[in-house]
Write a structure and sequence with these properties.
7 helices, eight-stranded antiparallel beta sheet, OB fold (Dihydrolipoamide Acetyltransferase, E2P), alpha+beta, 3 domains
Length: 350
Amino acid sequence: MRPFRDRDFIETYEGMFFCVIGNVHPTDRVISYLKYIPSDLGLWGRSRKYDRILKSYTTISVKEVLNFLKKNFPQYVGELNAMGLEMITVPVKNIKTHFKPEIRLKELYGESIERLDALERKTIELVNLLSKASVIPIECFGVTGSILLKIHNPSFSDVDLTVYGRVNASKIKNTLIKLKEDGSIQWLKGLEFDNWAYNKAKQYRLNLKDAWEICRRVWNRGFYEGVEFSIHPVKSENDASERYGDVIYRPLSGLAKIKAIIIDVEDSYFMPASYKVSDVEFLRGIPVEDLTEIVTYEGFYAGILNEGEAVEAVGKLESVLDRRIGKKYHRLVVGSFEAECSDYIKPIEG
């Protein structure tokens, strides 16, 4: 049985659905966020109805859900000592079902087309298109979100895909860019795009110019025959050997603001997204000599920057100790509860 991966889902005995965050977890708990809860008034589900409690994919929304759990289900909030923070975590003993995106996609392929609903058929068609264009085997894809849980509503749900393996991240990005260019896949244009960028500017507290430029670079979303979709690279077990506790993170006081040059984007497609940086200049906060990485838990900033590009970032400064090799350094974290969406990473003129 494989371990928990980013964008798997887990169901508790109360019937709540949590989405897994990242691939590194304590042995007895799973780091995640609560997304769907049972509700008679919910719009998701069939015989049992569910409502979406997570209103947006921001740290502010995750913090609101964390506070809901602390009040109503405190067993799903715990201290992550290795990471120096309090977070939503599901004890393994409380897990009723572990949902795996690649298994659900395999189930869809195993069904006769007549037994699939319209959204499930579109999922198969989209994966076929992406697999053929990218030469990534279908076995490397999965379907997450409401389709994974079989609570999707074909009238409004979208398709959320996963693609497994570090080597496939840049492949799928380049494929989506080409498919948008040749019209096989569409994305927002004109006023619709401008409205989307405006909403992102409000959501992430960015000025409109910066939000527009970041939105222009978002590559992992699109429309396929009128259905909105997203795709998310996820590391497989062969891509990383880190176990919880191998690396110790400790927050330092306050937020810092820096300028830097991106030197490595290989791990920027995953959750958390990591950009290696050099030539760091502190504009605010206590300077450190060995800041070598900007990490973001906000998917909005994942996979959008290029090697050699100058960036400005605001985030939480952390010290890092990699116990496997005895290395110490610092990193800047975008997407912390402390920042309350006042943090960011954006390209600037060099």
